[in-house]
């Protein structure tokens, strides 16, 4: 199975040699976010930058907003070789879609995240991630960084007033308060009663007005 290189990398992997290396590569589980680092291994001080645009392979997030499958994820990586392993610094941009947590309006939410992580050479070191077969797999880091950045209660705008508790209409789209008057239904029968009616009712039959 050929080695996978993130889109944007200038160098291409060489064909695997027959024998032991072929078996090692075959056992490596490549993902869309796998990056080769063989040119940096055990070369402290060496550095390489990689830009990529990848279609998100799976939905990220289960709340009111999420990054849908197929949404483009743009990344800028800096890969640095140090004595312990490969230090990866990443800056990512993508877009989450969903609904406002107050008024339920459809929204697009820009997502920008950054992270830095060391991929160790040796599994004996106390690090969470390792270099495998001259590659680093950024998929779990990207997934966790994006999901944790998504707001629990997203809003379409900071001052969104939400929904009317009685009608369910969006308050931002409701008429101005002085354009209508709420009337208690118990007083609706008196809505047509005016001051002139009150004067007429108080006048004695046959009496003349001054």
From TrEMBL:
> Per UniProt, what is one Pfam family of this protein?
YceD
Q: Where is this region: Disordered?
A: 160-185
Q: Give the source's domain of life in one word.
A: Bacteria
InterPro entries on file: YceD (IPR003772)
Q: What is this protein called?
A: DUF177 domain-containing protein
Q: Which organism is it from?
A: Compostimonas suwonensis
């Amino acid at each position: 199975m050929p080695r996978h290189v993130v889109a944007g990398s200038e160098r291409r992997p060489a064909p695997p040699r027959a024998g032991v290396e072929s078996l090692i590569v075959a056992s490596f589980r490549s993902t869309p976010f796998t990056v080769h680092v063989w040119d940096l291994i055990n070369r402290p001080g060496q550095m390489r930058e990689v830009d990529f645009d990848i279609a998100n392979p799976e939905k990220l997030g289960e709340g009111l907003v999420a990054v849908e499958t197929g949404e483009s994820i743009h990344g800028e990586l800096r890969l640095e070789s140090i004595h312990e392993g490969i230090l990866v610094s990443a800056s990512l941009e993508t877009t989450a879609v969903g609904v406002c947590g107050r008024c339920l309006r459809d929204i697009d939410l820009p997502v920008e995240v950054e992270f830095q992580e060391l991929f160790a050479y040796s599994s004996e070191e106390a690090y969470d991630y390792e270099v495998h077969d001259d590659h680093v797999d950024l998929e779990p880091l990207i997934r966790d960084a994006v999901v944790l950045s998504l707001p629990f209660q997203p809003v379409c705008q900071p001052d969104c007033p939400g929904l009317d508790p009685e009608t369910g209409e969006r308050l931002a789209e409701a008429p101005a308060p002085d354009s209508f008057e709420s009337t208690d239904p118990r007083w609706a029968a008196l809505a047509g009663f005016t001051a002139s009616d009150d004067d007429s009712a108080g006048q004695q039959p046959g009496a003349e007005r001054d």
